[in-house]
């Protein structure tokens, strides 16, 4: 599996309009090794380009290259802990404004896209059709169990 590098995809920097949120989630050494590999989109249905640089995980939307999250990590024993994130708040690039939703979405994206494990989708909409649409918008074919690096999974 190829490790994602910033040069693998078009990227735009995090805009000036941003906010900082605190995070508090630990990962084992094994999990951090998977997280550091990042994710390079392979198809249109892969919604994110994710890479690790300078103890931070950078999340860019694959179609636009817009940076949505830059998640900071700190060493913790053999593993790492997520401690904070800079979050895009430019309404032309990202419509979300709820910090708690972003906290949950960051964990969800890490679980589903990088750690490849099931996770509850963060949505306040109880309607199954709307949740499916939101999930497709966020993780594309990964919601069907098709990981961008291994489409046969």
Concise summary:
The protein is α+β, with helices and mostly antiparallel strands and 153 residues long. Helix content is 24%, strand content 27%.
User: How many beta-strand runs?
Assistant: 5
Largest sheet: 5 strands, antiparallel
| Share of β-strand residues | 25-35%
Count the DSSP helices: 3
Q: Based on CA inertia axes, which overall geometry fits?
A: globular
Rg calculated over all Cα atoms = 15 Å
User: What is the chain-wise order of helices and strands?
Assistant: EHEEEEHH
Characterise this structure.
This protein has one domain. Helix content is 24%, strand content 27%. The protein is built from 3 helices and 5 strands, in the order βαββββαα. The protein has a 5-stranded antiparallel sheet with strand order 1-5-4-3-2. β3 and β4 form a beta hairpin. It is globular and about 40 Å long.
Using brief descriptors, characterize the structure shown.
153 residues, alpha+beta, 3 helices
